[in-house]
Structure formats: C-alpha cells, structure tokens
Design brief:
375 residues, alpha/beta, Rossmann fold, 3 domains, 9 strands, Alpha/beta hydrolase, Serine_prot/Carboxylest_S33, AB_hydrolase_1, signal, hydrolase
Length: 375
C-alpha cells in the first residue's frame, strides 16, 4: 500500500494521491499531500514550564502481550495535562515503534490512523506488513492519543454505548428532546468517571503532544503520515508549528471548514445506510453469522454491542474490548464493499469462537488478520 509513499519520503518528492485503505470520520477523499517547511527556531520548548517535557527521552522495550509482534517496541511519553498550566498535572502517552532496518536511518515517521479515538499502538501492531517499506529508512512510530487506549483512557461506564444506542436508534425514542436528555446524561457520566483528562482531549492538545514527541524522538522536524481524522491533526500541527514540519502525507483529507456537528450527522446517516446494505448482503450468504433474515440480523448486532458493554473482553493491549469498540470495528468494515467479506468473517469469529482479534484489528484501523490455514 505504502510503496509509492515510501519512495517519496526517501526522495523528498511531492506525494500524489494515496490508496484510501484507511479512512475514518468524514473523509472528503483520498488525497496525498506533502508539506515542506524551512527550518526556523522552535519556541514551544521555551514556554514557561514546558522545558522538562521537551528534554525527556523515551525508553523503549519489548511490548507486553502474547499476540503482539516480537519486533514491536513500546514506550511512554509524559505530557502536561494542560499546556496553559503545565504544573496542573501530567498524562502518560503510550507509544509503539518498528525500528528502521537501515544502518543510517533518516529519523522517525509518526502515524495517526484516524478516529478520533483510534489506538495507534494497536493499529501499528496489526498493520505491520503495510509499513515495512517505510522501515527501510525510518523508525515507524504511532501512539494512543490522550484519553485513548493506554493513554489515560476516558471511561464512560460499561453500559454507555448501549444507552447511547437506546437514545438514538429511532425505535424507542420519538421525542428528540428526550434523546438529547439521555445523551447529556451519558456525557455527564463520562465526565464524572474520566476525571480531568476529558476537558483536555482536543486536537490542539494532541498536536502539542506531537511536538513534544518529535523532540523526544530526536527529530528536528516531524515526519508524519495521517489518515482521515489524522489529516486534521496533521493540519493543526502544521498551523501551530510550521517551522517544525518535515515530510507530511495526508490521506483522505478531512475538512476544516464544515461544522463538526454537520459532519457527524452526515457520517452517521451514511454509516446507517451502509450497515443496512451490508446486513442485506450478509444474510444472502450462507456464511453469514446472523442467519438469513436482515431484520433479525440488525437486532443481533445491537444485542452483540450491548453484551460486550455488559461484559467487556480483555485484550493483549491492556484494555477491555467493549461494545463501543465493536461499533468502531463495524464502521471500519463498512467503508467499502470490498471490506464486507472481512467484516463478515471477523464477526463470525467473534460470535462463534469468542475471538476478538479480527474486530480489534478493524477497530484500530488496521487490517484484520487472515484465518490460519487448516492443519
């Protein structure tokens, strides 16, 4: 997938359009973009209270987890909870990387798979084969953004997803004001359970984390590859730190002008239509895990999400796989019809064998592993 991009990162050419293999949120299309900036003196490190964060070094070690690639390394980065008040508290961000195979590497490339809310550590682990071209010359790095995965994750309670579904599924709620009331209750529960991190999870905060990460990685400039929402993050970083932009590729560019509420509504409508189409297709296949009734299949999906909210499944990445994670995995599998057989397969693995590896891969924006060959 990334062969052409790898060549352009090596040679410094302007990137052409990239294959839209990873898309999240309201992506406007698959577009590659390289931004090259001249070197200027950085000022962020000199802001009061930030020097200690910029001076840290990342300690890398083998990642914990039996299912993780042996050559994947994990580390952590300390960042301020609030950049406006660095003494207010700190957060620990989880990072992962594949080392460059070159004896003379050209630094790092940081990846963001989109979301917002996707685990970069998990995405890098599952998408390893896609990035081997880049590791010829670069350390390939990704991370769990603040509030996600292993990075001080936000918790909304075990039944948050099912409560949100009940408020918005269009069947049990006729009054939109009542649905809004229920959603506000869920949001209040998230705020209560998550502590101070929830108020500091914006894209600007994550962009500032990226700059601390760049310095901790030992890079004078940030080389960055972002998919879908990751293009928004890259654009915000470039606007905030234009003098620190190295080679930046943005695939599936997100708009910065449309109101987020309108983007979210359009995306939700599109995903609902895609889900109905997928279930119609699935129930026409003998291998469909939901049977051959499309209406009953929809009820199965809702029940599956709720059951995972009630009883989350532990993962090798140090967190529990919930109904919200499953909803994200399904959304990933709905982007193209070419993904429907993969989505059908991983849902069957989950329902028939309790195997979450495939849906975990989709939820992270990575590729679901192929089934093992028969003995």
């Amino acid at each position: 997938m990334l062969g052409e991009l790898s060549e352009r990162l090596r040679g410094g050419h302007h990137a052409k359009a990239l294959p839209p293999s990873f898309r999240r949120g309201a992506a406007a299309g698959a577009v590659g973009l390289v931004l090259l900036a001249t070197g200027l003196t950085a000022t962020a490190r000199d802001e009061p209270g930030l020097g200690r964060f910029y001076d840290q070094k990342i300690k890398w070690a083998a990642c914990e987890g039996t299912e993780l690639p042996k050559d994947l390394q994990c580390g952590s980065l300390t960042v301020p909870l609030d950049y406006a008040d660095p003494g207010k508290g700190t957060l620990e961000l989880a990072l992962a990387r594949y080392r460059a195979s070159s004896d003379d590497p050209r630094g790092s490339v940081v990846l963001n798979f989109g979301g917002p809310g996707g685990s970069g550590v998990q995405g890098l682990a599952y998408g390893r084969k896609d990035f081997l071209g880049l590791t010829d010359d670069y350390d390939v790095v990704s991370f769990d953004p603040r509030g996600v995965g292993r990075s001080s994750p936000v918790s909304c309670g075990a039944d948050a997803t099912s409560r949100a579904l009940e408020a918005t599924d269009g069947e049990g709620t006729d009054d939109p004001r009542d649905a809004l009331r229920q959603l506000r209750e869920v949001a209040a529960e998230c705020e209560k359970r998550s502590g101070p991190v929830l108020a500091h999870m914006g894209t600007v905060d994550v962009a500032r984390d990226l700059d601390v990460m760049r310095q901790a990685l030992g890079d004078k400039k940030l080389n960055y590859l972002g998919f879908s929402y990751g293009t928004r993050l890259g654009a915000v970083y470039a606007a905030r730190f234009p003098e620190k932009v190295g080679r930046m590729a943005l695939d599936g560019v997100d708009t910065l002008t449309d109101p987020p509420a309108e983007q979210g509504l359009a995306s939700a409508r599109g995903q609902q239509t895609a889900l109905e189409n997928f279930l119609t297709w699935c129930t026409e296949q003998l291998a469909c895990p939901f049977g051959q009734d499309a209406r009953a299949a929809r009820e199965h999906v809702v029940a599956l999400v709720r059951s995972l909210d009630d009883t989350p499944v532990p993962t090798d990445f140090g967190y529990e796989f919930t109904g919200q994670d499953l909803a994200g995995a399904i959304a990933q599998g709905l982007y193209t019809k070419e993904m429907w057989p993969v989505l059908q397969r991983v849902l069957a693995q989950l329902m028939e064998d309790g195997d979450t590896s495939g849906v975990e891969a989709l939820a992270s924006g990575g590729l679901a592993p192929a089934p093992a060959p028969p003995p």
